[in-house]
Amino acid sequence: MQFKKLAFLLLFLGFSSTAMAQMEIGIQFSPTIAGNRFIAEDRHGFEKNSNALRVGVGVIGDYFFSNNYAFSSGLMYRSKGSKVSYTYMVESGDGIVTPTKETDELTVQYLEIPLTLKLFTNEIAPDVVLYFQVGGALGTKVSGQVDQKKVINSEKTAKRFNVFETSAVLGTGAEMQLGQSTKLFGGVTYLRGLSNIDNYYKKQLNDKNLAIKNNGVSIDVGVKF
């Protein structure tokens, strides 16, 4: 009986050490050029006024199930959103309807879990490989701001921004081996929002088909060990 327990323990430790040998954990910093895109009728006049520089930072983990393929996940803090403008109709007391243009700066912070596949090439130079990344990400809202004012969870604003967001992820970059277990990496990632982030405009403009989604391109730099 004791022998079986010892054998099981040795097998478990061996499996754990093998799994850890296949896992690379790192820290990533991702400044992002963020914007928004719209699904809306032309009469609303939605347009992106400008992109915004947002921050992204977090911990990533690459689990290798072969020499050149890895499942990549982690936990990222990302800020998204930009300035948007739209047109709505205002009716005066004498019955005259006037189109009015409004501009909002949207800023929403998310905790995001990427779920992606990474393909690594063989060495293209001594200790340097390229990687290609594809997959998605699941985000949950941490906080939101409109015109740099926090949207608090009051009766009027609790449902301003949706709690969850889904995104498609597509990226490429390079890794450089610095030591036995240390690697530097840098790359570019395109983040395409798939879900509506803001319910306010549906009610403001009385259009249930209207949707605003995040877009962004991040410059990723970090270290793995």
UniProtKB/TrEMBL annotation:
Keywords attached to this entry: Signal
Domain Outer membrane protein beta-barrel: residue ranges: 21-198
UniProt keyword NADP present: no
Species of the source: Pontibacter indicus
SUPFAM superfamilies (alphabetical): OMPA-like
Signal sequence, renumbered to the chain: 1-21
Protein name per its UniProtKB record: Outer membrane protein beta-barrel domain-containing protein
InterPro entries from the UniProt entry: Beta-barrel_OMP_2, OMP/PagP_B-barrel
Upper classification of the organism: Bacteria, Pseudomonadati, Bacteroidota, Cytophagia, Cytophagales
